[in-house]
Amino acid sequence: MRIYLCQVRERTDGSLYIERNREASTEHDYIAISHVWGSPDTIQAVKVDGIDEPVSLSPGKFDILTILRRPDVCGDTWFWMDLFCLDQTPNATIPMSDQLASIPTIYKRSRCVKVLIESPICRDWTATVAQADTRQTDPDTFEELELHHARKCRLMLFADPWFDRLWTRQEGLTNLGDIDKWVSEGENADQREAVYTFLYDKLQYHGNIKPDSGTKFQAYLDLAYRGELDMKNYQTISAGEKSLYSPIDSAWRSGRTTTKARDYVLAVFPDLEGYTVPTDARKLSFAELLEDALQQLQHSKHSAKAAAKVTKGTVETNDIADTSIQPFIPATPANITEAYDTFHLLKRLPALDPTPQKPLTCSGENLHVIAQNLTLTTTIPLTKPNLADLVALWESSANITSQLLACPQSSPATATRVLKSEQDLCYRSFALSFCQSTVRKWAVEKNLPHGFVHGVVDADKLTGVTEQQYGVYLARFMGVGVIE
After folding, report:
1. Which of 67, 84, 117 is the last residue of a domain?
2. Coiled-coil stretches, from where to where (predicted)?
């Protein structure tokens, strides 16, 4: 994969400058740099020798070339750093969309990731902990002592803004090299928990199926106090097992922030196999990028698809009917949790082999996933008599209560309030059939229609609907295509 790489060079007079290799690739030997640009009220445009355009730096990094030239940072080794290696000029030899899409691979293929933190740290406390014997250290006792020290001294690594930002989280997750080195230049319990959350995600990202508390504690000491984190010490995945890591779910849980809302998409979605960064990504808003990303996931090449937790129809009264069941997208989310709060990803189930016929089962995901993966043959026609069998499958394999609360698009728990056509009436009837067992369970009175606010359309009311048209409506409702 083609990328730009940089190197700090020194002239005969001792001055430093950046040399940029525009023909490099991820096969080269290089170090990846992760850093926080700084807060919007402190960063300034700084001219760096060798770079045509000014770059944004926080006060602690104005002398960025001297920092990068240090032997314990990059020395004379080639490195990748977004400030210098993302070329946003019109004549860039690599399209900007390709540069953004390549960022996860850049960090994965690097020799190591080095993090330039913003804050000074308490060196005495750090040195004391670094020398401690982990085997003789009780995690609970250590956490109490650490918080006690933090009340007196705020110079703690876990308070650094690196643990708040979204891009730095993504950069820190991916690398599998020998060392993640922290270089210091410059709510305690909650901030420390953010570090533990990051470590949990990083361990899962690299295949540690269920990181236990001891593993996380060891990784925490290595990262925060010993200055290096060798992921090879934490690999516990066995043959045939799959990592539980989910890019969207773990990013949502992290609560990280970014200065540009569009980065809530551009920083995370490239980690999903098959996602393509739009060519004009830098010109699109967050809402436009997320809508495009969710639409991309609807294609079968992806291993997951999006389902709405909060639909447009529940928030926007002026939305048109055919988009009202799509996820509502906030215009300016405060953090990644808010950005991803209105949808979730559902894993696609493999299509079931219809020959020979076996009892239909699933892993308990959601109804519309089951329906999507039914392989229809002449022995399983979508007709009125077979509706009861589909309902039985639904009731035996899905969490109907969660489905009713989430109300995802294309779900048999989702009908419509608008009854303008024969199809609308059929959809209301189908939704009633699939959900009546759960409604009976939670309704004050057990006899339907109690518990249904907007009325009931049962099968007896579908007069005039032919058997063929009934099958067409049922196929559309289940999301498996139209049978003509």
Report:
1. 117
2. none
Closest residue by Cα to residue 229 from 251, 204, 203? 203
Q: Which residues partner with 305 through β-bridges?
A: 346
447 or 326: whose pLDDT is higher? 326
Do residues 361 and 465 share a domain? Answer: yes
Residue 164 lies in a domain: no
Give CA torsion, residues 230, 233, 234, 235, to 10 deg: 110
- Residue 61 near residue 35, CB atoms below 8 Å: yes
Q: Token pair 């959809």 is at which residue?
A: 427
Structural tokens at position 464: 């005039």
DSSP string, 239-289: TT------HHHHHHHH--B-SSTTHHHHTTGGGSTT----TTGGGS-HHHH
State the residue range of the domain holding 25.
2-117
Model confidence at 482, in pLDDT bands (50, 70, 90)? very low
Mark whether 356 and 323 lie in a shared domain.
no
Q: How many domains does the chain have?
A: 3
The answer to the question of residue 225 being in a domain is no
Query: How would you label 200-218 residue by residue, b for 16+ Cβ within 10 Å and e otherwise?
Result: bbbbbbbbbeebeeebbbb
What distance in Å separates the CA atoms of residue 87 and residue 98, rounded to the nearest whole number? 11
Q: 142: which residues sit within 8 A by CB, 6+ positions away?
A: 129, 217
Beta strands in 26-125 (DSSP E): 31-35, 44-46, 55-57, 79-80, 113-117
Phi-psi region of 191 (alpha: psi -120 to 50; beta: other; left: phi over 0): alpha
Q: CA dist 367 to 345, 401, 415, 455, Å?
A: 14, 11, 14, 22
Contacts of 463 (CB under 8 A, 6+ apart): none
Which helix (H) or strand (E) covers residue 467, if one does?
helix 467-478
Amino acid in position 396: S
- What confidence tens digit (pLDDT) does each residue in 114-148 have? 887 766 777 777 777 777 776 777 777 777 787 77
